[in-house]
Amino acid sequence: MIESILLLAGLLIGGAVGFGFFRYVLTNRYKQVLEEAKKEAEVIKEKKLLEVKEKFLNKKAELEKEVQQRNQKILQVENKLKQRELGLNQRQEDLNRRKSELDGTRDKLNSQKQMLDLKEEELEKMQIQEREKLEELSGLSAEEAKKRLVESLKDEAKSDAQSYINEIMDDAKMTANKEAKRIVIQSIQRVATETAIENSVTVFHIDNDEVKGRIIGREGRNIRALEAATGVEIVVDDTPEAIVISAFDPVRREICRLALHQLIADGRIHPARIEEVVSKVKKQVEEEVIETGKRTAIDLGIHGLHPELIRIVGKMKYRSSYGQNLLQHARETANLCSVMAAELGLNPKKAKRAGLLHDIGKVPDEESELPHALYGAKLAEKYKEKAEICNAIGAHHDEMEMTTLLAPIVQVCDAISGARPGARREIVEAYIKRLNDLENIAMSYPGVTKTYAIQAGRELRVIVGADKIDDKQTENLSGEIAKRIQDEMTYPGQVKITVIRETRSVSYAK
Question: Cβ–Cβ contacts within 10 Å for residue 201, how many?
Answer without folding.
Answer: 14
